[in-house]
């Protein structure tokens, strides 16, 4: 069994990302943050960071999504970053699936994590926000 393979869920196969996945990750990132995406600059550094998890999803071999978490605060908190889904798969729940796989993997590997921190560009609305403690909100 390939040690990078994590699991299969909802027709997707999840893997730990490797340096050689870079070009495929960039291919799903073309339109992100109006050309100011930080991932092209940080990807290879992420591959070397201790306590960082980077997960990719593939459908029929094609890379369709990425999510990442960095474990901080002495193992108590995970900071989620980098979430993206390829344009052709958006609006079908893939972001939810990969986030659940990432949560599950991080809980397995880092059982001390009790807090998840994430940043959202959109306003998720009161129902979703009720599941979180909001730390800060910035209106541009
Ligand atoms: C934002 C993005 C990842 C959403 O992906 P998607 O698969 O189309 O998401 P969907 O609208 O189908 O939503 C499905 C699930 O993802 C969650 N989701 C959607 N957008 C999200 C976001 N920005 N952050 C966290 N979760 C998000 C939804 O809450 C939903 O969760 P649920 O299944 O638990 O109910 C995708 O549009 C994308 O890659 N955009 C460009 C990059 C980007 O803006 N990334 C977000 C950084 S915060």
TrEMBL record:
Species in which this protein is naturally found: Silurus asotus (Amur catfish)
Residue stretches making up the N-acetyltransferase domain: 12-140
Molecular function as annotated in GO: acyltransferase activity, transferring groups other than amino-acyl groups
Superkingdom: Eukaryota
The protein's name: N-acetyltransferase domain-containing protein
